Amino acid sequence: MKSKTLSNLPWAASAVWLLLALGAVLVMTPFWVMLITSLIEPAQATQKPPVLFTTVLHWENYSRLFEQVPMIRYLLNSLLVSTITTVMHVVLCAMAAYGFSRLDFPYKNGVFFLFLITLMIPPYVNIVPLFFLMKTFHWIDTFWALIVPGLFGAFGVFLLRQWFNGLPVELEDAARIDGCNPWQIFWRVALPLATPALAALAIFIFIFSWNSFMWPLIITHSESMRTLPVGIAALQGSFRNDTDWPVLMAASTLSIIPVVIAFLLGQRHFLKGILMGSVKE
Amino acid sequence: MVLSCVFLVGCGQTAKDETIPVRIQFATWGGAEEIQVIREVVQAFETSHPGVQVEIIHIPDRYYQKLHILIAGGLMPDVVFTNSISFPVYARHHLFVDLAPYLKESKVLDEMDFYPSSLQVFYMTKEGGKKALGAIPRDISNVVVYYNKDVFWQAGVPLPSADWDWQTFTETAKALTLDRDGDGRLDRFGVSFNRHSSIFWMPFVWSAGGALFNSDQTGVALDQPSALAGLQFYADWPQTYHVAPRKTESGGTKMSEMFLHGKVAMLLDGRWRVPSLRKKATFQWDIAPLPRGPKGSISGLDASGYAMAASTRYPEAAWMLIEYLSSSMAIRRLTESGLMIPARQDVAESSVFLSPDQLPTHSRVFLDVIPSGMPTRSHPRWNELSEELNLALEPVWDGQQSPEEAMRKVKPKLERIMGVVTHE
Amino acid sequence: MSSHFQSSKSSNSNHPARQYETFWAWVFILPCLLGLFVFTYIPTFSSLGLSFSYWDLLGQPAWVGLDNYEAVLSDPLFWRAFGNTWFFVLVSGVLEVVLGLGLAVVLNQAIKGQSWFRAAYFLPFVTPMVSVAIVWGWIYDPEYGVLNWLLENLGLLAAFREGEPIAWLYDPSTAMFAIILLRVWKNVGYNLIIFLAGLQGVSESIYESARLDGASPWVSFWKLTLPLITPTLFFVVMVTLINAFQAFDSIYLLTQGGPEHSTDVMVYWLFKNAFEFYKIGPASAIAYIVFLVILVLTLVQWQLRKRWVLYEE
């Protein structure tokens, strides 16, 4: 499987390994700094030299955080928005992908091109008109605005179309002969067969939604509607001259824990999701 | 099913039942402590006014960005806390109610309660050229000189007097500037230097007899000789006299940090600096007015206050809230934090503000400079103007360009931006 | 793609089987298409209209023709942002691609702890920019930051800066590099993973024969690996560039385009025009210019790809 070129040069191999390890340590350092700073006293955060290790853990920073801002609410908002977005986005993409892959209809290529072209539009082009669209719908500062515009994307359609194209049609034949219509075949046969691709896309969409910042920043204004990134940015802004670093770091730490856990648990799916993203059209 | 319930909770569009208490929204900024006080005051208001419920829209950061979006989205809060600098764009669109009649009718508030200049910054022009009042002022901001007494004593320099002039100021700053180890790099600067905010350099333009705009706000007046002299005086600090840090000498460190660390002996700043100095300063400090220029010692004067949205459905309730927030009791509570100079004269003159047992000893200076203060006349497109001005002044502060040359270059640009206002 | 829901192709579109299939196709495709229409197409075209208008979000938009484009294109600050954007895109792009490829080549070997390394390098990619920007802001702090402390202890500040701390985000000459470093740190793992996939698609036997021919790892990388993964390389370069063009969060959170416009990039400049200067017209014009740049870039990529990519599966 693996190339053995390096192991033939033991000296070079250990040098490379050391470099990799050093790089990995450097890459992980910000996370370590985040965690440690969330557990020290506020005064220690503006101290020279910086505190990078500590034995006295000030967990009260976390309780102070919960007193200052409704972190749980932010967390639940983010979870709700990201989960619904992910599930619905994936289903809608899968449906369209299945349509393009398995069914024939007039102007199919033209319609497909309509999907293709949206991939090139930078989201920032749309932000002001989209805001006024939300105003027309009376959706400003609601979950609708946080969720609905994020449900549609052409990227997943391409991804899943590719997957469906790779599935042998024969697998669906039995259901077709039993008199199932395309809708039933899609749900009963095609979708289960696409589980790995769906999971991968889902994870990708989840990260994207969890981390999204500009749109929720613009479209929410009440404290109870803020998602985690918007809430944390507001917390940071509220300090003005006197930043309470430990509290801020505590908030950051809490915001990355869910994605880190999700990543470590589903690492294989994660990587597959990223790999699927690289499937070339 | 569960989902749709959640959606409904988030969706603020449910019909209002007119028989239950009216609900009004109140937008404000404020740090953690400040917002705590505001919440308590608003709660007290709700208790004493059972017919009105107040939803506080707390926008801790980038306030006007959010406020603008809210207004654009048709969701302007009923009561809006605003400062006088960002106020004109909304006034021009007639988004605020004229509060002058309300103030006149009020049994709680009186025009005489407030410093006249704090009202003046909120005047808007009504159709027919009549003056209208856009907001009831809460607090006043101006700029004074904070100084580190310990450093003055060590250097044997007399403390600033209330009527010091530009020359005394320069000499003081020179005497306080110090290269301790003789390596050619200054270890302490006489005075702070803020490059990016007009509130720090405009006072010297005014003190020299200059102005930012011409009198009808159609053109820029910064290219006039007196204004240029003011700009030159400020630019001299880091350059000619080198008593203030140059760009490379302060790096990213904030001036207030350098002051706290004894790296600058005098700090130009506003009242909002007091709480953190009380908490963190390890030395004796006090305040003095800005030094006198050819036309006197003139600080800018801005105010923040409560405005009522023209779109409000409940003007009576909104006014009751504004009245309550502007009452002596509420202003006292907010003044206790030490963050602000109250626009109410009774509270300003009381021990709540002057707090004789706390630093600065001469708290009164904040009040003494109010009468001579220059009420801000901002502009609907101030953000953009300020951006261009900062950019143009950068080489002046770095000693690479004369104020004259910089102003000659930037003036047409500024006037073009100002001109677009008429473009409706 | 030929359909499997009809046994024989009928050229007659009124044929019942054909109608049946068309009906179901629309059932599947319409929801997504409708969504894209409402939330992408309508706003995109409205935005085009706004780019020809004067509007401060409060009054009514007024038609001004090409004025906004003229104003934007004659504004030195726009060109500053334009230049900054390219600098940002190219420097961060090269670093992300080269480092990603280098790491992937090394991690493609049988190395102890391979999956741990992969996870470590990839982790920043999954975390929210808001959270990591806070930490990086602290790391970059001139006074208390870990970075200056590290440089000081390595003797680098004494050697190159006469002991003066570097102001990172507050110094116009370093702020952009600080933003780039954060971006590279955050994104390199993504490229690493994609390159790894590309490399694993390269058959082992090719390397074996190269090794038997006595080619060094260095030579076989340039002569074999690189040509064989050109499709992946193209994909990575495109994604990296297009995403870099749209960088916003880190700049909004850490520098707001400053100091002295040194980190103003086009998307941030657009946002500032819209939500700080309330100039929706010019903001929309900038948006369309960004759109155009990305479009041209994509077309160039397609052309290059046709010419250079060695093989496609």
Please, could you describe this protein's structure?
The complex is a heterotrimer of chains A (281), B (424) and C (313). With 281 residues, chain A is an all-alpha fold. Chain A is 70% helix and 0% strand. Chain A contains 15 helices and no strands. Chain A has helices spanning 10-37, 42-45, 60-68, 71-102, 108-118, 127-136, 143-147, 154-166, 170-177, 182-193, 195-211, 214-219, 228-238, 245-265, 267-277. Chain A is globular and about 75 Å long. By secondary structure, chain B is α/β, with parallel strands linked by helices. Chain B folds into 2 domains: 21-140 and 302-375, Periplasmic binding protein-like II (D-Maltodextrin-Binding Protein, domain 2, 3-Layer(aba) Sandwich), CATH 3.40.190.10; 144-300 and 377-422, D-Maltodextrin-Binding Protein, domain 2, CATH 3.40.190. In chain B, the strands form 3 sheets. In chain B, strands 1, 2, 3, 6, 11, 12 and 13 form a 7-stranded mixed sheet that branches. Chain B has a 4-stranded mixed sheet with strand order 8-9-7-10. Chain B starts with a helix and ends in a 5-residue tail after the last helix. In chain B, 46% of the residues are buried. Chain C contains 14 helices and 2 strands; from the N terminus they run αββααααααααααααα. With 313 residues, chain C is mainly alpha-helical. The longest helix of chain C is centred in the first third of the chain and has 35 residues, at 16-50. In chain C, helix 11 (230-245) runs antiparallel to helix 14. Chain C has helices at 16-50, 67-73, 76-107, 114-126, 129-139, 146-153, 156-161, 175-200, 204-212, 217-228, 230-245, 249-254, 266-275, 280-308, and strands spanning 53-54, 62-63. In chain C, a hairpin with a 7-residue loop joins strand 1 (53-54) and strand 2 (62-63). Chains in contact: A-B, A-C, B-C.
